[in-house]
Every structure is written in C-alpha cells, then in structure tokens.
Recover the amino acids of this structure.
C-alpha cells in the first residue's frame, strides 16, 4: 500500500468512526440517508454492517463488493461492534467474515440474541464435516456431502436402542435442514448433494483437528461438548 493510499485510508476511517460531541450539523447532513439520521458511516459501510448483523456470515466469493468493504474498513466496523459486545472474525484465505459474541461474563451482560443450541445429531454432523473440510483443504475441490452420507455419519453415532431407522431418517433430514438454514451447508445443482461452506472452519475453530474425536466421543457418551462457537451462528428459529 502506498503512502498516499495509507493516508487516504486513515482519513476515511477517521470520518467513519462515531463523531465526537460537537460535530457540525453540516457534516451530519452530508452523511444523512433518512430523516433524523445521526449516523456517521457512509452507505456502503452501513450495508456491510447490516449484512454482518443479519448473519450468519459474509462469503467473499459470493459477494465480492461487501467482502471488500469489510476488509478495507475492518477497524471501523470492529469499533462499532465492540459497543454492542460483538467480535468480527475474518478469514482472508477462506473469504469468510462473521460475528461472534464477545466474552462478556465479567460485565454481566446477555448476548443481543438468544441462541438456540444445536441438537446432538446436528452437532455430530457439523463436527464430522469440520474434519472432512480440513482433510480436503488445499485440494482445490469443493467439500461435498450427500443425504446418504449424512445418514451414514449419524448411523455411526447412533446410540443403541435409542433410534430406529425411521427416526434416523427424520434426524438426518432435520439436521441437514438446520445446517442449510445456517448456511454451513449450501445446496448444489444435484438433488440430495450439498457443499460444505468454508464458514464451518470459523464456526468450529480448533487449534488441532485431532481434538474433534474427543468431542465426538463425549457426545456418544452423552456428555456435553463445548460448541459455543458453532452456537454463535445458530438462529433463534422455531422448532
């Protein structure tokens, strides 16, 4: 980046930060987008912020314009998001940006949106797909999953006597539907085949992929695995 572009960026970021008390009405009117607007962000930055808040994530491959805005003005976005206890996570390699709740237990504040936790089978499927995504990283090919493959995964982790074949089919379809709703799975042109989103790597971050089998083993034993990161993408949808 050249010195001139750096200076331009610093000037722009300074203009996009919340204005200090005493900011002139003339400056406000330049940014005004609707009656009573007191915001300081320009339109493209506000649009990127809304997209992030709507979630579950921004895919830079699918929306290059918003992705570029997020990368260019990441500091300004994070400054605003910090006011409402949210953290902006960006993975430039995978071109994924998403929001996660900050660790705010110390200030006794609840997250903005109550999160509906994933069910056991949904968590199992997500963990197995996270392993598959890691194994295929760098190959240049999409990581895909069929409906039959999802059923086989859940069958491997079925608790003896707890789920019959009919119920397994129901759990397979509901688990796929949930991960599709969260856009961790994406539809393809082929019926019953899905692409695993790169966002899953950020939703389930691990220092080492070798940690996942322990989580799966805990689930198989009925213990509660720590899936807070994944739950941060969960919607507050109805059953």
């Amino acid at each position: 980046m050249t010195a001139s572009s750096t200076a331009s960026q610093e000037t722009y970021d300074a203009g996009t930060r919340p204005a200090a008390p005493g900011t002139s009405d003339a400056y406000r009117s330049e940014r005004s987008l609707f009656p009573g607007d007191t915001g300081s962000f320009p339109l493209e930055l506000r649009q990127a912020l809304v997209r992030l808040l709507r979630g579950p994530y921004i895919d830079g491959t699918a929306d290059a314009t918003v992705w570029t805005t997020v990368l260019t003005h990441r500091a300004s976005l994070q400054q605003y998001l910090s006011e409402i206890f949210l953290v902006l996570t960006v993975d430039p390699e995978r071109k994924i940006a998403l929001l996660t709740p900050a660790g705010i237990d110390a200030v006794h504040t609840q997250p903005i949106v109550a999160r509906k936790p994933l069910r056991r089978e949904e968590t199992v499927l997500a963990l197995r797909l996270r392993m598959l995504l890691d194994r295929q990283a760098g190959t240049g090919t999409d990581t895909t999953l069929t409906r039959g493959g999802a059923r086989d995964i859940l069958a491997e982790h079925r608790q003896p006597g707890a789920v019959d074949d009919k119920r397994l089919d129901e759990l397979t379809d509901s688990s796929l539907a949930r991960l599709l709703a969260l856009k961790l799975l994406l539809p393809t042109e082929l019926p019953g085949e899905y692409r695993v989103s790169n966002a899953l790597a950020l939703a389930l971050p691990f220092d080492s992929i070798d940690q996942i089998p322990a989580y799966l083993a805990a689930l198989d034993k009925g213990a509660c695995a720590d899936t807070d990161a994944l739950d941060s993408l969960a919607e507050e949808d109805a059953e």
